[in-house]
Amino acid sequence: MKEAQKITCVNNSGFAVKFQICYLDNSSQTRVSKWNSGNFPTGQNRTCDLKKDIPEIQEGTIVWPHILAIIGKSTNGDKVKFKYNLQAAVYIIEDTDNNFHIDLS
């Protein structure tokens, strides 16, 4: 499993999106952080530094982005393990042939 300290989402979808960070707590229950990227348009990206932006998430926690599009679609990215390493997990958001999806690059 990929390890990263930052989650970056690149919007190539054709419409504005925002994302939140989901994670597994100590009981393996899915939680959603209060942090979100705010809406950002096609051609832009946003980054969440898990260590700085969501200090309640501990190193070793499984995390993933939950993408919300202004057109009402949503999707989840692949899971990564949070590690203090300054590395970013980069996700590409696309909408091809009416198939809204996100890919971990």
Kindly describe this structure.
The radius of gyration is 13 Å and the shape is globular. The chain has 105 residues and is mainly β. The chain has 1 helix and 10 strands. Strand 9 and strand 10 (99-104) form a beta hairpin. The longest helix has 4 residues, at 50-53. The strands form 2 sheets. Strands 1, 3, 4, 6, 7 and 8 form a 6-stranded mixed β-sheet that branches. It has a single domain (3-104), classed as Immunoglobulin-like (Sandwich), CATH 2.60.40.
Topology overview:
Elements: E1 3-4, E2 6-12, E3 17-24, E4 30-36, E5 45-49, H1 50-53, E6 62-69, E7 74-76, E8 80-82, E9 88-96, E10 99-104
Parallel strand pairs: 1-8, 2-9
Antiparallel strand pairs: 2-5, 3-4, 3-6, 6-7, 6-8, 9-10
How much helix is in the residues? under 10%
What structural category do the secondary elements indicate?
mainly beta
Question: What is the strand content?
Answer: over 45%
Order of helices and strands: EEEEEHEEEEE
Average pLDDT value? 96
End-to-end Cα distance? 13 Å
Can you tell me the number of structural domains? Answer: 1
* Count of strand segments: 10
Q: How many whole angstroms does the radius of gyration measure? A: 13 Å
- Largest sheet, strands/sense/barrel: 6 strands, mixed
Tell me the number of helical segments per DSSP (H or I, 4 or more residues long). 1
Low-confidence stretches: none
Which architecture does the CATH hierarchy give at level 2? Sandwich
CATH T-level topology: Immunoglobulin-like
- The level 1 CATH classification is Mainly Beta
Shape: globular
